[in-house]
Amino acid sequence: MNTINDFPWNKPEILREQYKKNNHKITYTGSKSRKALVFFSSNGIYYPNNEEEFSKKILTIDYYDWLNIGKHRIIKKYFSKIIYLRDIYKQWYITGINNTINTQDKLYDFLCRELEGYDITTCGSSSGGYMAALMGSLLNAERIIDSSGQFDLTKTLGNEPFLDLSSKDPDLNRYFSIKETISSHTDNLYYFYPAYHENDIRQNEYVKELNIKRFAMNSNKHSKTIRPICYPYVLTAPKILLDELQIKHKGSIIDDTTLYKEIVPVLNRIIDPTLYNITRILTRAIKYLPISSK
Question: How is domain 13-287 classified at the CATH fold level?
């Protein structure tokens, strides 16, 4: 059981110093579109929960979920602005992302400013999926991609110290349940969840009466829904295609291979791995190039 004395919830100095920094990354792709994509990192941004892993992933690598997806050529062509966010305390962004943006409401205000004039897409997995659904609904996003996101945080109380501390604070617990918030945005909310994972089954049951566009995936692992290579296509495909696939598979369990073949064009199934391998080879080659001295 997690306690307030555990790392990172005991707020050690290393966390407090990082919390003073942005904990968001904004990139511009050069696309002429007025479309923006917001990626929410999950509680898995570093693990195990210790100072060594935190230093490696956050301080050294400056890690955010979805960075590789955001570099895909289709993403860069379709979206002109990409925002990556992370919660270094790993508590569903209850304390926002930094000292200034330290609540979910302030994070919403920040995104409103950054996304003014853009057509918005949000995306995340697990706690990131929860935030993609919440913020996407509040921001009237035209597309919300939620993989294994939670809809009711009260089901985790007793295991997550910040949630427990915030559970009786109306300024912090107002989004512990997001059922009402997302209820009028279900036409744009695509929810992928592992059909055989107990917690995900419970979360899906909580919103069973909402007409969310569900994809029940053949998986028993939390957050393991669609293949990573599918995300660029799910994020950019014509809405009519996603809707047709959702209707086609409604009430059934979908294998990730099936969805991969339906969403990724045949030619791109060759191009994507080829480009990936070329990039990997070039990256390794550059790493070992001799450095000339003058």
Answer: Rossmann fold (3.40.50)
